[in-house]
Write a structure and sequence with these properties.
The complex is a heterodimer of chains A (367) and B (633).
Chain A (H helix, E strand, L loop, with lengths): L3 H9 L17 E4 L2 E4 L10 H5 L7 H8 L14 E7 L11 H11 L5 E7 L5 E6 L21 H7 L4 E6 L1 H12 L9 E7 L8 H9 L5 E5 L4 E6 L2 E6 H5 L19 E5 L7 E5 L2 H12 L3 E5 L2 H27 L12 H9 L7
Parallel strand pairs in A: 4-6, 6-7, 7-11
Antiparallel strand pairs in A: 1-2, 3-12, 3-13, 4-5, 8-9, 9-10, 11-12
Chain B lengths: L1 H4 L7 E5 H11 L4 E4 L6 H14 L2 E4 L3 H13 L4 E6 H6 L1 H10 L5 E7 L13 H7 L3 E2 L4 H18 L3 E6 H5 L1 E5 L26 H15 L6 E3 L6 E6 L2 H11 L6 E6 L1 E3 L3 H8 L4 E5 L5 H12 L6 E3 L15 H11 L14 H5 L13 H16 L4 E3 L25 H10 L10 E6 H17 L4 E7 L28 H8 L3 E4 L4 H13 L3 E7 L3 H8 L4 E3 L14 H6 L4 E4 L4 E4 L9 H5 L5 E3 L6
The chains are: A alpha+beta (367), B alpha/beta (633).
């Protein structure tokens, strides 16, 4: 496994970095500020580079990882291996909850039932600026409620969790972060301690560059925002002077380049994935993938903390199509960048599912 | 040594450093006023004058820059006292206009300009030859070849200056300034020169009317030089080859003739008065030979002046060799006896067997690793360069950094992660930054950063700062304030509350100056790497002219005044050599205090050099470097 200089060449210099944060805080050469992640000084490590081995944007055999962590679960080429899909909401309302309050409730259950010693979540400095933290107390989880759209390298906190001796951890992450968590364990050197993580993957279309904050400051001088949401093809920002709406196209300009190459909308390698349930506000879509994920949801439902209902088949098809659309866009962007020699594909493009998606979407535009 | 310099023991011989000999000469000449800006190889002169100023009843100052120093000397000269101005080669160029105008106006009390050159640039960025300036300005010049001459020429120069009413330059080089030799002392005056009243019609005015007078003074100097005690010939009556030499070239020439046993074939004309040349004396020896080799440091100044004499005397039949077009000697870098011996051997068609210099043991060669110039242990500049480099990389905007002159010039090398895009002269950084920053109006979008130290700030950045502020250049000016003119030896500057003579001074606040000019200014601590990185990052994102002062006293000073904290490595926590850090502390941070224990395969602190700043402890990703609680730094 190569080291930092190769990571710089393949990932940082090509802007494919997803800013998951998996490489950070272990390594003194990699440095993050806001949404920049750079190799601040040349790295002398040329073998067994941890950064290279955990990065979701270095070449990976995703099939092998899926087969190891989600063995025996039926594989779906659109939304990954899963057991069941539900629509879910919390029985109690949670302050600042984005949709159904499901993630907060799952985390609370995991902590209270001592399935984990701690949880890694992303709170906020202000309404927009993400602020990752480790919580060992269920009361702290509320601070992380609500969605953050600006990118955050929250997986850096894995190092802190290890230093704190948190052996069993629940991590809420974007698809890239779930991928990185799986790679951490998959490529773990045999002499280092195992990473026991319950992964709660979020649905994710993209993350925004921090330049979006500068844009808002310039467009709405003096306003402070308390919430951001994307109900239907429009971005809503709740401010001290009411709700401001921005057209989707405006916001899309701030999508990080690294997100444009992403093929995963539903956190396909997670134990359990959670997103919005679009037809009815206040509900979540929950994808049960591993037995561990199933156990967590079952516990929350059996304790009457969550309400889970059958997922409408037509909605499952819509979810599949949305996920397929993201794959198609990502594949197109990777192909185009590879043709322009901006990057070397970090996936095996020749695999039949990818080929099929590229064929059916040929001629369409990427975002 | 101070006591030797001021010993009232005429006829007694002491081993003096060249710079001490110069000080002694100035004291024997009865100087009352001396001014300088620090610069190697001349720095010791003013430091010594400052130390003896009280007892010798003279005034000595470290001026804000060389221009201040030289023109202060001209002012003191109006009061009829003898004044010494000391500069290095760059400082001499700084005073170009002042020197040319002073040469036009002439002086009253004697003014001697001691210019110390640095052939090979041992402690400079260049090896400029000061002698061009004496010729360009039209002032007489002397070049000492020995330590005794370094002293004696000062006395001669002041007398000549007063006789001609003209500034006289004495040109030294590093080997004279920093070498040591026997010097027999002369008499000290009973009291130094006393200021005289300036009459209503006394003038020192530089105007073109006096141009011919300038030449008349040069003619007068030339007549004096024909019989000056510093010129002389040794060798056969009609040498096959004549060496004409000045300064340190003389000893090399003597050694070369001896080494090749050419005493009966080669003659040496040693010149101590090299502008204007004593033409009759030179002609006398040119007529006795057909081949001439000129040996001098650095440029072919003497050579071309001799060429000029040859050109004006068509009866001569002389071939000229020297450094010009490398006809016999290299055209750049410092000479040494071997180079001169080789050149002479070639010209005289003799074999030269290099002398036995003693075998260097092979293991000594193997065990000497190549070493970069680097910052001292705990140097705040290391932290400043580290955080500036990382901030520009984090910002991902390809920031451009204009360097300046000081310890931090080394930051252009590995010690500063090759941060600097330009290095020129004192004050160049802010001016080059201003120009580049103005290109933002044409779409240039890389951040522009200019650096300067605190002493350089006062020396030559003030007009640049005014210019950049007035024109609102898009740039960040970073003042690396270590509260010292560190590289040249901790001489005071206007930010320090003590002067050259050790008396209290009115120190000037850099931030107040910057604020008064109207620039937004932030003061930050370079040791606080992460917090200061954020400050720099925020500043470079802002448009317009910004100033950041990175303030932390020079570690060498700090450890003298505050003592040191203990720092050590916990080997249990140190991750060793593999991925995890790859020896980040010793390899990348690069402080001489961070070393590697090859046996244990772990990092280690060199307790002899570590000053306990503790910055490496904040950088170690494993938290393995521990710092004693409390403590001073």
């Amino acid at each position: 496994m190569p080291g930092g200089m190769q990571l710089k060449t393949e990932v940082l210099a090509t802007s494919t970095c997803a800013l998951c944060g998996a490489c950070l805080d272990w390594c003194p050469y990699l440095k993050n500020l806001e949404d920049h992640l750079v190799l601040r000084f040349d790295c002398p490590v040329t073998e067994q580079g941890r950064c290279y081995s955990v990065c979701p944007r270095t070449f990976t055999d995703w099939q092998a990882i899926n087969d190891r962590f989600l063995a025996g679960v039926d594989y779906d080429t659109d939304i990954g291996a899963f057991q069941t899909v539900y629509r879910v909401k919390s029985r109690q309302s949670i302050r600042d909850q984005q949709d159904g309050g499901t993630v907060s409730t799952l985390l609370r259950t995991a902590l209270l039932d001592e399935l984990v010693d701690g949880v890694l979540v992303t709170g906020k400095e202000d309404a927009l600026t993400p602020w990752p933290f480790l919580a060992e107390d269920a009361a702290e989880i509320e601070k992380a409620a609500g969605s953050r759209y600006l990118v955050s390298p929250s997986l850096r906190k894995i190092i802190e969790a290890r230093e704190k001796g948190l052996e069993k951890l629940a991590v809420v992450g974007r698809p890239c972060q779930v991928q990185a968590l799986r790679k951490m364990e998959f490529n773990r050197p045999p002499d280092s301690p195992a990473l026991d993580v319950l992964s709660i993957g979020l649905f994710c279309m993209w993350s925004l560059s921090w330049a979006f904050k500068d844009y808002l400051a310039k467009t709405y001088p003096g306003l402070t925002f308390s919430r951001m949401a994307i109900p239907q093809h429009e971005v809503e920002l709740t401010s001290n002077e009411g709700i401001k709406s921005l057209p989707m196209e405006t916001v899309q300009e701030f999508i990080r380049t690294g997100c444009r190459y992403c093929l995963d909308m539903t956190s396909e390698l997670a134990d359990i994935s959670v997103g919005a349930f679009e037809p009815v506000p206040g509900w979540n879509t929950v994808v049960i993938r591993s037995d561990r994920g199933k156990e967590l949801l079952d516990r929350a439902v059996s304790q009457d903390l969550l309400q889970a209902e059958e997922y409408p088949p037509e909605e499952l098809n819509r979810l599949r199509q949305a996920s397929r659309n993201k794959k198609a866009r990502g594949l197109r962007n990777i192909k185009q960048a590879a043709e322009e020699q901006k990057l070397t594909p970090f996936i095996d493009m020749s695999q039949p599912p990818y080929q099929a998606i590229m064929e059916e979407s040929s001629g369409k535009e990427g975002f | 040594m101070e006591w030797m310099v001021k010993a009232n023991e005429p006829g007694k011989t002491y081993l003096l450093q060249g710079n001490e000999a110069i000080v002694r000469g100035a004291l024997e000449a009865g100087i009352r006023f001396a001014a300088s800006y620090p610069g190697s190889p001349a720095s010791e002169i003013m430091a010594m004058l400052g130390r003896v100023a009280g007892e010798m009843d003279i005034y000595a100052e470290w001026s804000t820059n060389e221009n201040c120093a030289f023109q202060a000397c001209m002012g003191a000269s109006m009061g009829q006292v003898r004044s010494l101005c000391v500069v290095k080669q760059n400082g001499l160029l700084t005073i170009g206009d002042a020197l040319h105008t002073a040469a036009l106006s002439g002086c009253k009390g004697g003014v001697v300009l001691l210019a110390a050159d640095d052939p090979n640039a041992h402690s400079s960025t260049n090896e400029f030859d000061s002698r061009h300036q004496a010729r360009a300005a039209g002032i007489p010049m002397l070049e000492p070849a020995t330590f005794q001459e370094a002293k004696d020429m000062m006395v001669y120069a002041f007398e000549l200056s007063e006789k001609l009413q003209q500034v006289v330059m004495v040109r030294s080089v590093t080997r004279i300034c920093h070498g040591r030799g026997n010097v027999t002392l002369g008499e000290l005056p009973e009291s130094p020169s006393q200021p005289l009243p300036i009459g209503e019609w006394d003038r020192l005015v530089a105007i073109n009317w006096f141009h011919d007078m300038l030449f008349a003074k040069l003619d007068q100097a030339q007549a004096e030089f024909e019989n000056a005690p510093f010129n002389g010939y040794s060798g056969p009556e009609n040498p096959e080859l004549l060496i004409i030499t000045s300064g340190t070239g003389w000893l090399y020439s003597v050694e070369a003739v001896e080494a090749l046993k050419l005493e009966d074939k080669v003659g040496i004309l040693k010149l101590g008065t090299t502008w204007p040349l004593p033409e009759k004396l030179v002609l006398k020896y040119l007529e006795k030979t057909s081949r001439v080799l000129v040996v001098e440091e650095v440029d072919p100044v003497l050579e071309q002046n001799v060429a000029s004499i040859i050109g004006h005397n068509p009866g001569l039949n002389v071939s000229l060799f020297g450094r010009y077009k490398k006809s016999a000697l290299p055209q750049s870098f410092e000479l040494n006896p071997d180079v001169v011996i080789n050149a002479l051997a070639t010209l005289m068609n003799t074999e030269y067997q290099p002398r036995q210099t003693g075998e260097v043991p092979a293991e000594a060669v193997v065990n000497i690793p190549p070493r970069d110039l680097t910052f001292c242990a705990g140097c705040p500049h290391r932290a400043s360069f580290f955080l500036l480099k990382q901030t520009l990389r984090i910002h991902e905007g390809n920031g451009v950094v204009m360097g300046d002159i000081g310890c931090y010039t080394m930051g252009g090398q590995r010690a500063g992660h090759f941060l600097l895009h330009s290095v020129a002269c004192m004050g160049a950084g802010i001016n080059m930054g201003e120009g580049l920053g103005q290109l933002s109006r044409f779409g240039f979008d890389q951040p522009v950063v200019a650096l300067a130290g605190d002493s350089t700030f006062f020396h030559s950045c003030l007009p640049g700062l005014v210019n950049a502020r007035y024109h609102d250049a898009n740039m960040l000016f970073v003042i690396l304030d270590n509260s010292a003119t560190a590289m040249t030896g901790f001489q005071p500057h206007p930010g320090i509350d003590i002067n050259c003579m050790g008396q209290p001074a009115n120190s000037i606040s850099i931030e107040k100056v910057v604020e008064a000019i109207g620039c937004p200014v932030v003061v930050a601590d370079p040791y606080e790497i992460e917090a200061t990185t954020q400050i720099v990052y925020d500043l470079i994102k802002q448009p317009g002219m910004k100033v950041l002062i990175l303030r932390q006293p020079c570690a060498t000073l700090a450890v003298r005044t505050k003592g040191r904290r203990k720092v050590w490595v916990d080997p249990e926590l140190c991750r060793g050599d593999e991925c995890g850090c790859g020896r980040f502390c010793s390899k990348t941070w690069g402080c001489p205090g961070n070393i590697w224990d090859y046996e244990a395969g772990k990092a280690k602190i060199d307790e002899v050099v570590c000053i306990g700043c503790g910055v490496c402890a904040t950088l170690c990703p494993a938290g393995a470097i521990k710092v004693e609680e409390g403590g001073a730094v």
